[in-house]
């Protein structure tokens, strides 16, 4: 029983025959290429449930490979390339890139964290104050000048938090004369300095050198949080007269050029003696590999981990870490807790791929081999093109398989 708008009359015997399930508003024949309109998508004159996916399952190599017939959805039409002015994202053509994506040669590329927002920094003679700090609102890349931090007086925490979005300073960073005990407002900062950026030129010993980081004459500073720091470029660093500083990493580890000058004062303390810090209770977390080189007291402030790392935190093992429903794989070689494949449910063993899932989230693809059966978790059952397929694809617990929509039988 199709309904009058879902059938056509066969000329040979004047009988009624149902239209293909992919038709909408009737048809003039039984095939998916004989519809008046398509229920979902139209691909080269044929109605289909979805445009050809980016990958297909190859029965010879038993894995998903690039699909030579991949098509993109432009409205309800499947196309080889997006029309001019449209952007490709997740298999569709859109008039503009969605939030947290950047356009790149006609494609929308997801940003690694916040999408870049550039701003200009300060000149050598300017310092961060209640006026100049406003130029850093929403900024994550300081493309020129630098940042000069002085006294805490006159600032609210809300104002100082404007610095927390900054991920890169392509010039020098000075923290000099800060009279607070903690400086945590640049905890998202990844890179300091640039080969072509401004420098701090100072005499260290008998030689003048270029520096891109200076932390000096901060009499009360006890901790400085650079827990996201990856690299110091374009020069060395100066560490001078910070008599209370306990929580700080080993800046030498972050130099892009290991031969860059490391100006660490000896006549006056560059930082507090580590043993004294430990005695006073300012010690690194037990999951840090060091007792004194860290950016704070928590397991998210470690430079390196004693056991395993998960999402920038050090943990004893991966079973104790809070993860997504996909679960975690404990990689003993890299000492990382890695997210299991998105098609896993409740963890994975032996690796993070879809063949290592403990339980499948959507569909279970089983392929008989010579002496065993290969089991893979997939988001939809593969449409196997004109190839004998002796395996099976079944829905995971609680899932319903739609033969028309998922190619599952």
Please describe the topology of this protein:
Blueprint: E1 7-10, E2 15-18, E3 23-27, E4 35-38, E5 41-43, E6 46-48, E7 55-58, E8 63-66, E9 72-74, E10 77-79, E11 87-89, E12 92-94, E13 101-104, E14 107-110, E15 118-120, E16 141-144, E17 147-149, H1 157-160, E18 168-169, E19 173-176, E20 182-183, E21 191-192, E22 200-204, E23 207-216, E24 223-224, E25 231-232, E26 236-240, E27 262-264, H2 274-279, E28 308-310, E29 313-315, E30 328-331, E31 336-339, E32 344-348, E33 357-360, E34 363-368, E35 373-378, E36 392-395, H3 403-406
Describe the structure.
The chain is mostly beta strands. The protein is built from 3 helices and 36 strands. The protein has helices at 157-160, 274-279, 403-406; strands at 7-10, 15-18, 23-27, 35-38, 41-43, 46-48, 55-58, 63-66, 72-74, 77-79, 87-89, 92-94, 101-104, 107-110, 118-120, 141-144, 147-149, 168-169, 173-176, 182-183, 191-192, 200-204, 207-216, 223-224, 231-232, 236-240, 262-264, 308-310, 313-315, 328-331, 336-339, 344-348, 357-360, 363-368, 373-378, 392-395. The longest helix is centred in the C-terminal third of the chain and has 6 residues, at 274-279. The radius of gyration is 30 Å and the shape is elongated. The two termini are 23 Å apart.
């Amino acid at each position: 029983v199709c309904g009058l708008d879902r059938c056509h009359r066969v000329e040979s015997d004047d009988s009624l025959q149902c239209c293909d399930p992919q038709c909408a508003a009737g048809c003039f024949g039984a095939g998916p290429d004989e519809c008046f309109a398509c229920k979902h998508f139209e691909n080269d004159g044929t109605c289909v449930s979805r445009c050809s996916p980016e990958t297909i399952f190859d029965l010879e190599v038993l894995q998903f490979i690039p699909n030579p017939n991949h098509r993109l959805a432009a409205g309800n039409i499947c196309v080889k390339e997006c029309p001019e002015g449209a952007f490709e994202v997740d298999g569709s053509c859109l008039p503009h890139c969605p939030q947290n994506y950047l356009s790149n040669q006609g494609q929308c590329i997801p940003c690694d964290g916040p999408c870049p927002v550039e701003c200009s920094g300060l000149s050598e003679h300017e310092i961060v104050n209640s006026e100049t700090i406003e130029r850093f609102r929403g900024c994550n890349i300081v493309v020129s000048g630098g940042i000069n931090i002085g006294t805490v007086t006159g600032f609210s925490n809300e104002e100082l938090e404007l610095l927390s979005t900054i991920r890169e300073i392509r010039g020098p960073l000075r923290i000099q004369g800060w009279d607070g005990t903690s400086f945590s407002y640049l905890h998202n900062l990844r890179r300091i300095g640039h080969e072509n950026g401004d420098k701090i030129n100072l005499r260290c010993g008998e030689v003048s050198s270029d520096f891109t980081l200076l932390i000096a004459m901060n009499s009360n500073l006890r901790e400085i949080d650079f827990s996201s720091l990856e690299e110091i470029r374009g020069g060395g660093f100066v560490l001078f007269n910070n008599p209370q500083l306990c929580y700080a990493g080993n800046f030498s580890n972050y130099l892009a050029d290991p031969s860059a000058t490391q100006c660490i004062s000896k006549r006056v303390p560059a930082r507090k003696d580590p043993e004294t810090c430990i005695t006073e209770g300012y010690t690194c977390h037990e999951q840090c590999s060091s007792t004194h080189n860290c950016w704070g007291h928590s397991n998210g402030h470690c430079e390196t981990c004693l056991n395993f790392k998960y999402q920038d935190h050090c943990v004893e093992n991966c079973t104790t870490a809070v993860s997504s429903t996909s679960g975690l794989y404990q990689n003993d070689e890299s000492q990382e807790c890695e997210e299991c494949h998105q098609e896993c449910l409740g963890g994975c063993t032996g690796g993070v791929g879809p063949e290592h899932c403990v339980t499948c989230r959507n569909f279970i693809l089983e392929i008989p081999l010579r002496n065993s059966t290969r089991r893979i978790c997939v988001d939809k059952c593969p449409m196997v093109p004109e190839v004998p397929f002796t395996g099976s694809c079944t829905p995971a617990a609680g899932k319903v398989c739609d033969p028309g929509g998922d190619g599952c039988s």
